Amino acid sequence: MDGIAIEAKDLTRRFGKFVAVEKVNFTIRYGEIFGFLGANGAGKSTTVRMLCGILMPSEGTAIIGGYDVSTQPEQIKQSIGYVSQRFSLYTDLTVEENLRFYGEIYGVSGDSFSNRLGEVMTATGLTTYKDRLAAELSGGWRQKLALANAILHKPRILFLDEPTAGIDPLFRRAFWELLYQLADEGVALFITTHYMEEAERCNQIAFISQGKLLKIGTPVMLKKEVSGQLLEVECQPLMKASKVLQGVPGVAGVTTYGTTLHLNVLDPQAVQARLPDVAARNGITITLMRPITASLEDVFASLEGTDDEKH
Hints:
Order of helices and strands: EEEHEEHEHHHEHEHEEHEHEEHEH
CATH topology of the largest domain: Rossmann fold
Structural class: alpha/beta
Number of helices: 11
Strand content: 25-35%
Strand order of the largest sheet: 6-7-8-3-9-10
Largest sheet: 6 strands, mixed
Distance between the termini: 39 Å
C-alpha cells in the first residue's frame, strides 16, 4: 500500500439542529478496500457525499487524494470514480456509446481513449456487449458498465455505494474480482454494503450508527473483540424463542441469524444447562446448541445494541 488516499478528521454534517454525521475519523490507504456499514439512515450516504465533494461539511474536513473537501471540491470530483446502487447511465445508448460519451466528459479522447476503452471493456468483460443498448443489459452487466465508466479516467480513488444490491451471487463474485484487481493496482476503494460476506472481503471495516462511528478495524480484529461468547441455537418456533430466550439469566443478547439464533452469553455452560427447561416450559423445541465464533453480523448486532443503550 502506497500512501494515504482518504483521511477524515472530525467530519461533521448538520441539517438544522439534526446531526447527520458527527466527528467521523478514519484513514484509508491506496490499495486498500474500506467497508462502510450501517443501517438505513445511519449516515453512510451523507458521509459519502461529503467525501465526494458534493456536500460541504459543517465542521471538520477530509483530504481526498491530496484535495480538501472544504476548499477543493471540484478537484475531488474530477479525480475520483463513483459507482451508485441505482444505474444512472443512459439506457437508450449502447455500452460503447455510454463509455465514449463519459470519456468526453472526463476529457479523455484520441488514441489514448481508444486504448483505454479497449482495456476497460476487456477488464469488465463488456467487449461482447459493446453494441448492446444499456436498457437490454441485466442488473449485473449494468453494474459492470457503471464500474467501467467510473474507472475510464484511471482514478486512484473509487467510491461504491452498495454496488451489488440486487445482483445475483455469481455476478457479485465476478464484480468483487474486478474490485480486487483494482486494489492490486493501487486504487483505494470505499464501499458501502449491507452484505456481511462482502464486508469480510475488506481490509478495514467501519460501523456507523446514528451518525457516529461505533467501531473500526479489520474483520478478524472486530470479531475477536465481541464481548462474551456465542451460542448457536436451532429451535422452533424461531421468533417466539428469540423473545423468550432474551430473558434467560446470563443471556446478554439474541440475534436471529438465518434459521437459527445467536445468543451472546457470559457463561455458555450455565446457559446451555438452563435452556432445555426454559424451552420446555414455553413450548419451544431445541434441536441444536453449540458454541460458535463471532461473525461480522454478531459484531454489528452487539455494537448496535450498545449504541441503543446510550440513547
